[in-house]
Write a structure and sequence with these properties.
Layout: E1 7-13, E2 16-17, E3 37-45, E4 52-54, E5 58-60, H1 66-80, E6 104-107, E7 110-115, E8 122-124, E9 137-139, E10 144-146, E11 161-163, E12 185-187, E13 194-195, E14 209-211, E15 216-217, E16 233-235
Parallel strand pairs: 7-9, 8-10, 9-11, 11-12, 12-14, 13-15, 14-16
Antiparallel strand pairs: 1-2, 1-3, 3-4, 3-5, 6-7
Length: about 240
């Protein structure tokens, strides 16, 4: 007569032991995309040591709607840039609707505009901003942002303006930005960007304003920037 109090439980995810998951039920502290997988449990008994029971695997799939991805990306932006110390953070990380969050504008049900200009943002811009797939206008100018320009922005089909002027951004300009289908303005001046200007940017037929002044860029200006048939203003000074 073996009681349940003698049972020993160990949970696994995709065959890998979950440290500390030793109860008869499994509670996930949070659920996100990385939570998906196959969960199983092995049960042994301190009295009947030769017996091991395997619970039937539980397969968990986590999917988000595009609107959910917008919200998650905004939360990630807040957490990555010291949002608790922003100058203005009205309604951020509350249950209030997204249009009431400071600096956020929606078109229909999707985020189209993020304007957090001069808002004491400190830290790096997360790659998850590329999940805001209907984004049109992205302005984080005049802050204290560091780290690289997020490559993920290159794949936003409606993005028209990236304004990152006057920060402390480092690294190179992603060559992937040559994929920006609707871009009108690129403002990267007054940062610490290095390397050369990617020749892929010559593919940006819609680009009208391009500013790279006061960075640490080196090398030649690519010849194919002459293909920028819509350009009105270029500023590559003080590099």
């Amino acid at each position: 007569n073996v009681g349940g109090e003698n049972n020993i439980y160990q949970w696994y995810k995709d065959g890998t032991q979950l440290v500390g998951a030793v109860l008869d039920s499994l509670v996930l502290p949070s659920v996100n995309e990385s939570s998906g997988g196959s969960y199983s449990c092995k049960i042994t008994n301190s009295l009947v040591t030769g017996l091991t029971l395997d619970k039937r695997p539980i397969h968990l799939s986590v999917e988000y709607s595009p609107r959910d991805l917008d919200s998650l990306a905004l939360v990630d932006l807040y957490n990555s840039t010291n949002g608790s110390n922003w100058t203005t953070k009205t309604n951020w990380l509350t249950t209030e609707p997204l249009p009431s969050w400071y600096g956020v504008t929606l078109m229909g049900s999707r985020v189209s505009d993020i304007t957090l200009f001069e808002n004491n943002m400190v830290g790096e811009i997360p790659e998850s901003v590329g999940d805001i797939s209907e984004l049109v206008y992205f302005n984080l100018g005049n802050n204290q942002l560091t780290g690289p320009l997020p490559t993920s922005l290159a794949y936003l089909p409606r993005l028209e303006v990236i304004y990152m002027q006057t920060n402390q951004l480092t690294g190179t300009i992603p060559s992937e930005y040559g994929e920006l289908q609707s871009i009108l303005n690129l403002f990267f001046g007054e940062n610490h960007l290095s390397g050369s200007i990617p020749e892929e940017l010559g593919n940006l037929e819609t680009l009208t304003h391009f500013e790279l002044q006061e960075n640490n860029l080196t090398g030649l200006i690519p010849e194919n920037l002459c293909n920028l048939s819509s350009i009105n203003a270029l500023n590559f000074s003080q590099n």
